[in-house]
Amino acid sequence: MGIVTSTEMFKNAYAGGYAIGAFNVNNMEIIQGITEAAAEVHAPLILQVSAGARKYAKHVYLMKLIEAAIEDTGLPICVHLDHGESFEVCKSCIDGGFTSVMIDGSKHSFEENITLTKQVVEYAHGMGVVVEGELGRLAGIEDNINVSAEDSSYTRPEEVEEFVTKTGVDSLAIAIGTSHGAFKFKPGQKPQLRFDILAEVEKRLPGFPIVLHGASSVIPKYVDIINANGGHMPDAIGIPEDMLRQAARMAVCKINIDSDLRLAMTAGIRQHFTEHPEHFDPRQYLAPGRDNIKELVKDKLVNVLGCDGKA
Ligand code: G3H
Ligand code: 13P
Ligand code: ZN
Questions:
Q1: Quick check: is 82 catalytic?
Q2: Is 21 exposed, middle or buried (0-12, 13-18, 19+ CB in 10 A)?
Q3: What is d(CA 111, CA 46) in angstroms, rounded to the nearest whole number?
Q4: Environment class of residue 109 by beta-carbon count within 10 Å: exposed (0-12), middle (13-18) or buried (19+)?
């Protein structure tokens, strides 16, 4: 199948009531863990790269590693820029072979967000690349920018038709109470998402693919392993899996997961060093991190997103 856009994936996911997993990648082990899991269960994939990932690993390394994974697995994979903050960074990713970009204008005014997003859409569509926009603002940490709960805001459903029509975006990320990072809800707080907003958006944009950021569940198993092996993850609480299943049955076609990958990899490495403090060969401790990512992703694809067998 090779490198693809998300157009076909989203059409099928919307009709089938499931979602595509969009996983953040930063190095070879993460890419291998994710793509080997998807290959085993025949799931289409979105691999997404943040500005921080491009800075850490360099665009060309990540692109070549993803190309290698496509050759190795034969899977349809969409390569996506996560949280592009300017026209320039989107253009650079489009020119560098990505098939999808997000222009995250959520920190701008509604009008400025439209102008910026439209500019990216015009360039991207001319190159056969699809674009994700965002309305509403998630709390949490991304690219070292910490958006406080007070500065976050839910998507206003009455704005979505105008935004989509004026910009021409192919998918829309909305804010319904998820947030970035491992600390989404306070201790004792009951996780809640505004499914009423999602339902209203769905009604106003029938058939249009919606994206959910900040969707890690912060799997307790991995938090416990980290804490049992010298780590310190106080009161990490994520999005309950049942809520993700509900979103996937609705208009949500893309579910973004990064923090769960970080936790799974760190748990594997910490546990390995507890059991083998004498090891110093990176292959010995990175392999269990990669194995944990593979196990986690397989579980997400089959038991949460429902996209297994859809590749
Ligand atoms: O939404 C943010 C993603 O988790 C990427 O995080 O910017 O630290 O790579 P990063
Ligand atoms: P998490 O921090 O919940 O994994 O969210 C990742 C994300 O939204 C990437 O864009
Ligand atoms: Zn995000």
A1: yes
A2: buried
A3: 29
A4: exposed
> pLDDT (tens digit, 9 = 90+) per residue, 215-273?
999 999 999 999 999 999 988 899 999 999 999 999 999 999 999 999 999 999 999 99
> Which pTM does this prediction carry?
0.97
DSSP calls for 242-308 = HHHHHHHHTTEEEEEE-HHHHHHHHHHHHHHHHH-TT---HHHHHHHHHHHHHHHHHHIIIIII--T
3: closest CA among 130, 132, 170?
130
Residue 6: which residues within 8 A CB-CB, separation 6 or more?
20, 46, 78, 80, 99, 100, 130, 170, 171, 209, 253, 254
Query: Is ligand 2 within 6 A of the CB of residue 179?
Result: no
Atom 10 of ligand 1, nearest CA residue: 143
Is residue 132 in contact with ligand 2, taking CB distance under 6 Å? no
DSSP sequence for 14-55 = HHHT--EEEEE--SHHHHHHHHHHHHHHT--EEEEE-HHHHH
